[in-house]
Design brief:
Distance between the termini of chain B: 80 Å
Order of helices and strands of chain B: HEEEHEEEEE
CATH topology of the largest domain in chain B: Immunoglobulin-like
Order of helices and strands of chain A: EHEHHHHHHHHHHHHHHHHHHHHHH
Strand order of the largest sheet of chain A: 1-2
Largest sheet of chain A: 2 strands, antiparallel
Number of strands of chain A: 2
Radius of gyration of chain B: 26 Å
Number of domains of chain B: 2
Shape of chain B: flat
CATH class of the largest domain in chain B: Mainly Beta
Strand content of chain B: 35-45%
Structural class of chain B: alpha+beta
Strand order of the largest sheet of chain B: 4-1-7-8
Largest sheet of chain B: 4 strands, mixed
Distance between the termini of chain A: 109 Å
Number of strands of chain B: 8
Helix content of chain A: over 70%
CATH architecture of the largest domain in chain B: Sandwich
Shape of chain A: elongated
Structural class of chain A: mainly alpha
Strand content of chain A: under 5%
Number of helices of chain A: 23
Oligomer: heterodimer
């Protein structure tokens, strides 16, 4: 395909690729634009730009197999890698990048691609691969991504329990950016886990006292204060723990735990009256929160310490009742999740018209389960598992559609075979009647006759029927015996005949060239038509030879593909069910943990209540 | 107070997380393999469908493309071959945007006999100053043996500040 006639539109593939790999700012407008030179490549881009990765990949693979991308071999391969990545087909994407990124791509694009691959692998739990990809980044990452890459590296080390190495990675981080704050927090948490509470306290205290300029930092500050407060409580420093816990906002994701902690800090110093204030504040809050649940036991505990035994008993009874109701609700939810249809509800509002890495469930479907599972949405395992579940559902529907189409193709092939078999005898008959070779030799004979006529200037040969008859009549009269008489009347007729013959000859000679040209032209056209007919004949012969083979070949392919579709569909179904079980286990596991906690609290409440009753009974006996 | 057991809880949570990660990874690998299998199958089915419905000898494909697109916002394309309407495609915003960014849309596939054919394409959309705009382009093309690709291209004629509609043959 010539580039002159190519689609002369410009695009920057690498720019598109970097945009695709999650980062709009990664775009680089300085790169040489690429001219689309193969329509099939342009067609792939049409779907790619709409983020319909599945059809785009299929078209690219098909065009590649048909060698229709000869003008874009490298870009097509890189685009395929990028689309695999967007489609969540990360292992295949990595293989392509391994092959192509070494030489063919600018270092900054290469580094960015490895970075995003590392990020995706981390989210999918491939920590080793993520670390490997980070190791491939050389030096060209933009500063913001550099920071994120370092954080990612440290996070992997923390996840692996390698806290010292994580601390070492982040320790030299300077500056007051958000990233520096996150780094400080991560080091603090790592230090707490190592039992180095004093060192952690310095870092987390700094962070907990910062003046945040946005919601993200405010939230991080709360998180740092909470981590510090609880680390100090655990370390037996309740007085020191109170300050950070009190710095946490009263309304926020960490406020319940903070209120509970403040109460415990006071209770640890035996100031139960003070402890009751934050705990009572928790009473009106959502019982799903473990801090609220714990406060229901903490309140009567403090009351008992303050000798308000009867009030304490009432609170314990309330708590037992509330925990019982909550446990029942949890049981019903677990039952519903285990029934199987639950996860399909997640996809019900979703048209499933495409798949992709960027899809993310933002809201749980409405129902009693939603309130229990809300925080699962924030976890990688649940989100990525749901993504796979959704992709598998898409694959299943795709195969289902193909299965129906293949049935139609089978019918279509049968109909065509039948039509071919009906038409074939008619065509064969017509072909047998048309003797093309005879037509060709007759045409050649005509050519030769015409050449002779021209050479001999045989103008009479080109006379039409009337002229020819007239000529015959004239020459017949010329030879009539009556006209040979030597009388004036005969002489007069002879003159007239000579005149007529002369006029006719003059006219025939005058028209000779023109007639010769016309006949030649007609003969030439006949020759062309004969050549065309011969070509058609060859085509028909070829079709008659190849069509049955083509039918056979296509039938064979349809025949082979049908069981392939069926087999793959079964595998997808199996994977769907495993994925469903996995998601169920996460969700049910989460609910079981909540239930277990409620069970423990219930037992604690019953014990405490029994103890109170014992005390009351003892006091009663004593007073009697 | 549960603070003392927090460390133990954290450790067991980490162990559970690691186990769940492993389980996810194993399932994810299966999903990856299946994705590849289904993509390959789709490729084969796509090619089969094309060969079956549009054999190379009679295949003609009509592509729509845009270069720049400053003076024209495409709404729809209507295609007639030899006086018969064969396609009337209405573009979504997403599709029109994909065209502007360099995508090429295969708007129609047909089976045609060898010889001359007439193509008429009518483009509807918004022209300069966001006015309704409707223009046609026509050409006669010769269908030989083998697949034929025709491109209906919308370009900007900067000097006249007008769109231009051209039909080209790919060689």
């Amino acid at each position: 395909m010539s580039s002159d006639r190519s689609l002369a539109r410009r695009l920057c593939l690498l720019l598109a690729l970097t945009a695709l790999t999650l980062s709009a700012q990664a775009a680089d407008a300085d790169r040489d634009p690429i001219v689309v030179q193969d329509p099939h490549y342009g067609e792939v881009l049409f779907y790619f730009y709409q983020e319909d990765y599945f059809p785009a990949i299929v078209r690219l693979l098909a065009a590649k197999q048909q060698q229709q991308l000869d003008n874009h071999p490298d870009e097509a391969e890189l685009l395929l890698g990028g689309m695999y990545l967007s489609y969540g087909h990360h292992l295949e994407a990595a293989e392509i990048f391994e092959r192509l990124l070494a030489d063919n791509v600018a270092p900054d694009i290469r580094d960015r691609t490895w970075f995003f691959l590392a990020k995706i692998w981390y989210q999918r739990g491939y920590l080793d691969k993520s670390q490997e990809a980070l190791g491939k980044i050389k030096r060209e990452l933009p500063r913001n991504l550099q920071r994120e890459a370092l954080m990612l590296e440290a996070q992997i080390l923390i996840d692996e329990g390698n806290y010292d190495a994580a601390i070492a990675r982040l320790q030299n981080w300077k500056g007051k950016t958000e990233w520096a704050s996150y780094a400080k927090f991560n080091i603090g948490v790592a230090l707490v886990r190592l039992g180095r509470v004093d060192e952690a306290a310095r870092l987390l205290d700094d962070l907990g006292d910062l003046d945040p300029f946005n919601e993200e930092l405010t939230s991080l500050r709360d998180k740092a204060n909470l981590a510090l407060g609880y680390a100090l409580l655990q370390d037996g420093q309740p007085r020191a723990a109170k300050a950070p816990l009190q710095r946490i906002r009263l309304e926020g994701p960490f406020s319940n735990k903070a209120l509970l902690g403040v109460g415990w800090a006071d209770a640890e110093t035996e100031d139960y009256e003070r402890a009751l204030a934050p705990w009572m504040e928790l009473q009106g809050r959502d019982l799903l929160d473990s801090a609220v649940q714990e406060s229901m036991l903490a309140i009567p505990y403090a009351m008992a310490k303050l000798d308000s035994i009867s009030q304490a008993a009432d609170h314990y009874l309330n708590a037992i009742e509330a925990f019982h109701e909550e446990t029942n609700r949890l049981d019903r939810t677990i039952q519903h999740i285990e029934s199987g249809r639950f996860f399909d509800n997640f996809l019900d509002d979703d048209p499933l018209d495409s798949t992709g890495w960027y899809w993310r469930l933002e809201e749980l479907p409405e129902g009693p389960e939603a309130r229990y599972l809300f925080h699962l949405l924030a976890t990688h395992a649940f989100q990525e598992g749901l993504k796979n579940y959704r992709d598998l559902s898409y694959l299943y529907r795709n195969l289902d559609n193909w299965q129906r189409n293949v049935d139609v193709y089978n019918n279509m092939l049968d109909t065509r075979k039948e039509a071919y078999a009906t038409r074939l005898p008619r065509v064969e008959d017509a072909l047998a009647r048309a003797d093309l070779d005879d037509m060709v030799s007759r045409k050649l004979e005509f050519d030769s006759t015409l050449n002779n006529i021209e050479e001999s200037n045989d103008w009479l040969a080109l006379a039409n029927r009337t002229e020819f008859d007239m000529w015959g009549e004239i020459t017949g009269l010329e030879n009539a015996p009556a006209l040979r008489a030597d009388i004036p009347e005969a002489e007069e007729v002879r003159d007239k005949i000579r005149l007529l013959k002369g006029v006719l000859q003059w006219e025939l000679e005058r028209d000779f060239k023109d007639r010769l040209w016309r006949i030649r032209r007609n003969l030439h056209q006949t020759g062309e038509a004969l050549v065309e007919t011969q070509r058609s004949r060859r085509q028909i012969d070829e079709s008659m030879r190849t069509e049955p083979l083509r039918f056979e070949e296509i039938s064979g392919r349809v025949y082979d593909l049908a069981p392939r579709i069926e087999g793959t569909k079964m595998k997808v179904e199996d994977a769907l069910s495993k994925q469903r079980v996995f998601l169920q286990s996460i969700a049910v596991g989460e609910l079981q943990a909540q239930k277990q906690r409620l069970d423990i609290y219930t037992v604690q409440a019953r014990f405490a209540l029994a103890a109170i009753y014992d005390i009351a009974a003892t006091v009663g006996h004593a007073s009697e | 107070m549960d603070a003392d057991s927090a460390m133990a809880k954290a450790m067991s949570a980490e162990a559970a997380e690691s186990e769940s990660r492993e389980q996810f990874r194993s399932l994810d690998k299966d999903v990856q393999t299946l994705k590849k299998e289904v993509l390959d199958l789709n490729r084969d089915l796509f090619l089969l469908e094309e060969e079956l419905l549009f054999p190379a000898n009679s295949q003609v494909a009509f592509f729509i493309s845009m270069d720049v697109g400053e003076y024209f916002e495409l709404d729809s394309v209507n295609i007639k071959i030899d006086g018969k309407e064969v396609a009337n495609y209405l573009y979504t915003l997403r599709e029109a945007d994909a065209l502007v960014r360099g995508g090429v849309h295969r708007v129609h596939m047909a089976n045609l006999k060898t010889g001359d054919h007439e193509l008429i394409a009518i483009f509807t959309g918004k022209g300069p100053h966001v006015r309704d705009y409707r223009r046609g382009a026509t050409m006669t093309f010769d269908k030989g043996i083998g697949a034929k690709y025709l491109e209906l291209e919308i370009t900007d004629r900067v000097r006249k500040q007008q769109p231009e509609f051209v039909i080209k043959e790919w060689e």
